[in-house]
Structure formats: structure tokens, C-alpha cells
Amino acid sequence: MVSKSRGAFCFSSCGAFDLWFPGRGSQVIEEQDMDGNFGPMERVVWPVSVVSGIIMCKMVYDITGWISTLYFKGYNVLSKAQQIEWNNRGFSTFHAILAAAVSFYLLVVSDLFKDNFLDVPMIGRKSVVSDAMFGISIGYFLSDLAMILWLYPALGGKEYILHHGLSLYAIFLSLISGKAQAYILMVLFSEITTPFVNLRWYLDLAGQKNSMLYLYNGIALFFGWLAARIVLFIYFFAHVYLHFDQVKSIFPLGFYSLLAAPSLLTVMNLFWFWKIFKGMVKTLSRKRHTQ
């Protein structure tokens, strides 16, 4: 049952600010169903954040092209397809940094998902910030997926469609249900590796595969991927195991999705990690032979 009392829900560990949930009381509601999660605030935050995510992609796409035209001489000689991908990677980098920063704040800095915070299970906690971030990410993944399908396979093959489809499904389900947002934020934080992937593509296109920057970026990508997409996912499943009594309490579709979607992403992350490892070894070998 939803409490009718009014209260403040603080999610800052430093007490920097509180968010009021009118009509919700001072606790996150544990027994919410999907209909009950779509309150007056959500009716505004959800559509606005999704549209904002799409607008963000368009703006950063255009700004990337404008800045590149002015400050990167090689940009103007690229083919139209290469310029599109160049700009596309600009907004994917921007989203990755934003998503990782917000996820880190909510998971590490704030108290929102910490054990023994309030009398509400972690699995049902949420905030305006987490809802807004999920909406923005949905807008991003929709925009990027639309471009991938439009220009297929220039911007990515079937594995990218699968990755974006899984990401959209998991984020959307967590958003509309208000459940398992901590776990989706862990997955979103893994986007922190995207800027390194994109920088490698930029350097490769610019003919800088033999530069020290390419080497250092490759090493950073290897260790970043290991930390954010391998070790973090091990922690993810360990956390699910330790909180399994909460996890199994959510609705059936959410429960099975929480186990299945991250598992598929883990397989993909391991496959890409193997390719990154082979690429780094190849680059190091080439450097050693040229010295």
C-alpha cells in the first residue's frame, strides 16, 4: 500500500539536498506495482528526460561536427560516412561520461542504495535523479540505435543492435517498475569505457596507430574494461547473490530479466575483452619491433 503521509527522502550522504516525493512519505514504496509507480512526478520526468536525451544527442552531434570542422584539419577530407560516425561517436562519448558520473554519484557518494539506509529494501529505492538519468539514457540508446539501423552496418553490426536492445529493455523495465535501479546503474557505469573505445577509433582514422597516445589509450582501455566490464560485473552478480531475498521479491519478469540481460551483456563483454587484449598485444609487439 502507498503511504499518504508527506516526507523528505534524502539521497545525499553529505545532506546537500533533499528531494520531496509528494504523497509518497519519507520512504520508498516497497510494494509498488508498475501502475503505482507512474505518479504525477513520473508523468513529467519520464517523457521530458527521454526527449532531453534525444535532443542532447542531436546537439552534441552538431557541435562535434562544428568543432571538428574548425579545429581538426583532417575532418573536412573525410567521407560523408566517416563524418557521420565521427559525430556519432561524439555524442556517445558525452552520454558515457554523463551516465558514469551520475551512476557513480548515486551508487557511491549518496546513501540512496546503501544497506541499512531507511527501512526500505534496496531493490525498491529510486530518486528523481535516477529516473531522469534512465530517461536520458533511453533517449540516447534510441537515437544511436536508429542511426545504426539507418546506416547498417556502417556504425556497427548485429552485436551492437543486441547490446542496445538489451540496454533499452533493461533500463525501460527498471524505470517503469521502479525496481532494481541500483543494478541498472551498475551496468550504466560500465559505459565509462566508451570514451577510450571512441578515442581509439579517432586515432586509427587519423593515421595515429603508431603514436604513443594510441598505445597509452589502448592500455587504459584494457584496464578500464577489466575494471568496469569484468570486475564490476562479478561484483554485480555477487551483490545479487547477497541480496537475493530482495531480488526474488520483485515481479517475475523483472526477476528473470535481471538475471538474463546482464548475463548476456557479460558474455559480450568477455568477447570484446578478448579482442581488446589481442589488439593491445599486437600494438605492444609492433612498438617493440620498431624500437
Tally the helices: 9
DSSP summary, beta strand count:
2
How would you classify the helix and strand content by structural class? mainly alpha
Tell me the major beta sheet: 2 strands, antiparallel
C-alpha termini separation:
70 Å
Strand order of the largest sheet: 1-2
Element pattern in H and E: EEHHHHHHHHH
Task: Name the beta content range.
Answer: under 5%
Poorly predicted sequence stretches spanning 5 or more consecutive residues: 1-35
Radius of gyration: 21 Å
Average residue-wise pLDDT: 88
- Global morphology: globular
Helicity range:
55-70%
Protein name: TRAM/LAG1/CLN8 homology domain-containing protein
Report what the structure shows.
This protein has 291 residues and is mainly alpha-helical. The protein is built from 9 helices and 2 strands; from the N terminus they run ββααααααααα. The protein is 69% helix and 2% strand. The radius of gyration is 21 Å and the shape is globular.
Helix/strand layout:
Elements: E1 8-10, E2 18-20, H1 40-71, H2 80-109, H3 128-150, H4 158-177, H5 181-189, H6 194-205, H7 212-242, H8 244-247, H9 252-290
Antiparallel strand pairs: 1-2
Helix pairs in contact: 1-2, 1-3, 2-3, 2-5, 2-6, 3-4, 4-9, 5-7, 6-7, 7-9
Protein name: TRAM/LAG1/CLN8 homology domain-containing protein
